[in-house]
Amino acid sequence: MEGPPGREPHSVSLTFPPSFGSAYVGELFSCTLCANNELEEDSERQVSNIKLGAEMQTPSGTLPLELAPNEDSSGNMKPQETVQRNMRFDLREEGSHTLAVNLSYSETMISKDHSASSGRVRTFRKLYQFIARPCLNVRTKVSTFGSEAADETKALALEAQIDNLADSHIVLKSVVFNPKPAFKAMSLNWDAYPLEKGEYTNCPAMAPRDVHQIAFLVQQVEGTKKEVTRDGRTLLGQLGLRWCSSMGEQGFLTTGMLTTKRR
Description:
With 263 residues, the protein is mainly beta. It contains no helices and 18 strands. The strands form 4 sheets. Strands 2, 4, 5, 6, 8 and 9 form a 6-stranded mixed β-sheet that branches. Strands 12, 14, 16, 17 and 18 form a 5-stranded antiparallel β-sheet that branches.
């Protein structure tokens, strides 16, 4: 990302490849912004007051990004020096995202007697677009146990089917059910069983398009009052899923509020 030859002494080395891979909802998007002074050592131009800024344009709006470290770059920048800033952004929406990077700096012409003869402020802006896709698809089903069917909130089976929509393998690190105060839940999944001898983890690995089934036993706490919607649905709680990609990226997803069937 360089300016026109002979005019821009500064370039921004935010060198995303043509396709930097897939970005998934629930993961952390991070990168390093680099502003490099590409002037020669004997150049008559001097660069100072470097200011890097960034914002993320999402389907629902534009959000300013915090860059770290938050250091003062108002002094002179020597030729071949670099100013670096790191940014992170939690991907929470599907659809098109645009990372907008802004750079401004002061350029001063230095005369032969080392005095500043003239100066001006330069600015430019670069845009990088990518698509955030869902990594997991979760489909749930709530059913009652036989003799408890007369009161559907006494004993419920919460089942969920998890589909890996990513293009690579993932490992499900944890799946938890966070019930409403009127309920308690017990996991019927891999975390409910101790590791066998020689195992260091029993977390399920999922190849692309793999499906994994999970289940929880949900029971109403005695003496509590359940929350019911206007159409007769009982509010149960939410599922929280954590996963790790084959390259180590961590992801987290929370479902919407799960309910029983309409009465």
